[in-house]
Amino acid sequence: MEHRQLVIIGAGPAGLSSAIYARRAGLDTLVLEAGLAGGMINSTAEIENYPGLKHIDGMELANALRSHTEAFAPEFRESRVVSLDTGEAERDKIITTDKGSISASAVVIATGTSFARVGCKGEESFIGHGVSYCAVCDGPFYEGASVAVVGGGNAAVEEAEFLTKFASKVYIIHRRDEFRADRSVIGRALDNPRIEPVLNCVVDEIAGKDMVERISVRNVKTGERRDIPVDGVFVFVGMKPEISFLDRNSSIKRTDAGWIVTDDKMETSSEGVFAAGDVRLKFLRQVVTAAADGAVAAMAAYEYITNMEYLDRVIFDQPHSYALLISGADENQVALARSAGNLEKLTVADVYRAARVRERLGADKLPAMAEIANGKASRVSGVSSVEDIKSFIGEASK
User: Fold this and answer.
1) Do 95 and 108 contact (CB within 8 A), yes or no?
2) Active site residue 134
3) Is the pLDDT assigned to residue 230 strictly greater than 80?
4) Is-contact 366 323, C-beta < 8 A?
5) Contact (CB, 8 A) for 349 and 322
6) 13-24 vs 58-70: helix axis angle to the nearest 10?
7) Can you tell me the distance from the alpha carbon of 25 to that of 7, in angstroms, rounded to the nearest whole number?
8) Is the peptide bond between 367 and the residue preceding it cis, with omega within 30 degrees of 0?
9) Cβ count near 12 (within 10 Å)
10) Could you tell me the pTM of the whole model?
11) Cβ atoms within 10 A of the Cβ of 244, count?
12) Which pLDDT score is estimated for 45?
């Protein structure tokens, strides 16, 4: 089976940033992407809050990110990830795609989000026939037409304003009595004579023959129903994490809504698996935060991979070795390692982020000494002092 040091799933801002940092660190890096590099920003009309760029088209930024990443020569592969085995039994992770399987020392999940659906009658059947989730992609098809935008956040209101470049009438359907978007965004939209808010309403049905012809909305307060003739419906009711490849029983911890939980190094609950960008649980989902996540995830993966390769080299690949197993996050254990560092035959191994190494050696508690022969532990014992260590390796003071 093909093996790579680092596999990055997704080529949005987080994945591309991760690839840049991983390659700069010298990691063998494979980027898997099922769609356009750049991810969701390809469908963003304009970006005006990315530091250093006062204004840029989303697709233009996506192309720039891809071009920058290519300069560091990671391998890009167009394929869809079907499943991810986080390697609970073995250290390597197995990524199964529609084009075969790959093993990896570490994985960065940077798959971003996908559009949530309204869930009303007719939505699914009219996708591509009047129902869209991308105003930039499909707006030009509605020159002089009437369209509806469903949603009340920044994305919905901004896309409604964008659609007025083409459509003669844009209805914004929102279930609450006021929009959730930023005040400046709302102000611009409401000042546009082509936009008509339809508040306190939900869409019950999208209807038509071959193409969308109307929507049926219901007032959530009065129950009153109303048909609005439209030629297209643009849905912006939220996002959901793109984690379809993760099994329900995956060891990767997620919230009830599916967002991946990470620590400050972007590591998930599964050792050696990192998540970056919009797919993870976080306060703010923006291009700039996704790029930052990607950088952190790549460097944390580099630290993990190099540490595991070091442990292989000095412990498991040796015919015989003595290892002091410590947690680098514990000051007392680090001090013990320093005190014992000049002992011959002794290898110090920080296994704080290497739970599977501890399991493989049978070290339930740290610090511990392990005698390893031909990759297997023959003895393991807890220690608390340099004298304990000397005693373990037969060098105790007389």
Assistant:
1) no
2) yes
3) yes
4) no
5) no
6) 20
7) 14
8) yes
9) 32
10) 0.80
11) 13
12) 66
Cβ 207 vs Cβ 216: under 8 Å: yes
Instruction: Please report, as a single letter, which amino acid is at residue 91.
Output: R
Q: Are 205 and 225 in contact (CB under 8 A)?
A: no
Q: In whole angstroms, what is the distance from residue 151 CA to residue 197 CA? A: 11
Other CB atoms closer than 10 Å to residue 73's CB: what's the count? 10
Helix or strand (DSSP H, E) at 136: helix 135-138
CATH superfamily of 318-392: Glutaredoxin (3.40.30.10)
Say which residues have a Cβ less than 8 Å from residue 278's Cβ, sequence separation at least 6: 12, 14, 40, 112, 113, 239, 241, 285, 290
Q: Compute the average pLDDT of residues 14-37.
A: 96
Of 92, 120, 138, 350, catalytic? 138
Q: Give the pairing of strands 368-373 and 320-326.
A: antiparallel
Domain 2-114+240-310 has CATH 1.10.3720.10: no
Question: Which member of 137, 182, 263, 364 is catalytic?
Answer: 137
| Residue 48: pLDDT over 90 | no
Clarify whether 137 is annotated catalytic: yes
Q: 10 Å Cβ neighbour count for 184? A: 9
Same fold, 131-237 and 318-392: no
Among candidate residues 28, 57, 85, 134, the one labeled active-site is 134
Please list, in sequence order, all residues whose beta carbon lies within 8 angstroms of the beta carbon of residue 370, skipping any fewer than 6 positions away. Answer: 322, 323, 325, 361, 362, 363, 377, 379, 380
Res 103 pLDDT > 60: yes
Which residues, at least 6 apart from 263, have a Cβ–Cβ distance to it below 8 Å?
A: none
For the stretch 320-343, pLDDT in tens is: 999 999 999 999 999 999 999 888
Token couple for 211: 């193409």
Dihedral pair phi/psi, residue 229, rounded to 5°:
-70, 120
What is the amino acid identity at position 182? Answer: D
Active site residue 201: no
Give the start-to-end residue ranges of the domains of the chain: 2-114+240-310, 131-237, 318-392
Classify 131-237 by CATH class: alpha beta
